[in-house]
Write a structure and sequence with these properties.
It is built from 13 helices and 4 strands. The chain is an alpha+beta fold. The protein has 2 domains: 19-269, Rhopdopsin 7-helix transmembrane proteins (Up-down Bundle), CATH 1.20.1070; 279-429, Alpha-Beta Plaits (2-Layer Sandwich), CATH 3.30.70. The longest helix has 37 residues, at 233-269.
Amino acid sequence: MLSQIRSWCYHLRWFLGILGVTAAIAGASWLRQQPFSSEPILYSYLQIVGSLLCFTYAANAMVRFRGTHDRLTLILAFGFVLSGVIETAATFNFYDTLAAGSAMQTHVPLSWMVSRTLLALVLIAALVVERRVPNSREPGREIAVALFVVVVVAYLTSAAYLGSPLEPAMHPGDLFSRTGDLLPAILFALAALGFGRRVRHGTSSVDRTFCAALWMNALCHLVATQSERLLDAPFTVAQLLKVTSYAVVLGGALLDNARLFDQVRQLAVTDPLTGLSNYRTLINVMDSEIQRSRRTGRPFSVLLLDLDKLKAINDEHGHLVGSRAICRLASVLRVHSRAMDTAARYGGDEFAVVLPEAGEEAASAVGRRICERLSKDGEFPQISVSVGAAVFPRDGETIDALFNAADRALYSMKGRTSGMQTLARIAACL
């Protein structure tokens, strides 16, 4: 049944794809019939904006590469830089083409074919390199590989177009007046299918935006096949689609960077195992609470908690169960702390909870509640925790003094618990 559903979805995607291509060609044919001619200044603006978007994405990709050493991102950065350079140069030559007369306006700009085909081939080459060549995690080698790939693709693309005896031209009246644009359309579609496979394997949102942008580029060239002269309606729409695709790519990259920066920020302030605040965050919170309490004259408390017999749990049940025991205590602290409290992993099997606006009675109540909830969490093996509390400023006026007071209270509790367990064992023997 599942295989039949997958087969049906596969055939549906192909049907929708063919329907989309047909609709795009039909729409472009309708545009072809419209008596429209855009201003040259609009073309110049679109070229400039497109080049700026290419350069901005390339700079963004280089920053991403420094943090992730992602080879695909690096190759794309170089590819977009080269494409942006070619499009910038084409902007200055465009007015010379217009000044040459109406005959030249039926010739496809060679810079358009070279830059667009080059970018599509770089995208495909990046996917192939990422799949075939293992990631060395060496930045110098990554840059060399990326440069080599882009230079080879650029040389082959330029040689193919510049060395060809056939000059790309428009043929008004044919079904496809610009047949040369079919090649970039096919190449961008292949690249979109490649990025689509990455999306299905659960990659980041930047791949989804790249996939959408690549389909836009394929559509751009399908529309361009219906252009009969420069600046007509299909030509202008193709330029708009190209620039919009660059904006989509840059927007996706910026959103993905924001996600990565948020992850880095979370890693900087949280403990990777438990998700609670880490030691550095705990110290910062303690310092802030000391300053606040000195201004307001109201106390605050800190609880120090130690997971009992973690070594015995590790020896008897394994370290995975021991790590799970640590996470169980962290879960209790997270769920049963107030929004204003700060629960943190102090180190190893020790935790701390900072309780603003809480005195000795409130701290004792919180400690008892944590012990009670932990004993009833329903998981095996059953675990317990020892708790020590310190109150500012009664037990100390510095961070070290408060932790020392809480540590003494904690080990005093451990001693009482150990003594009670010893008496229980003696009574059982008698």
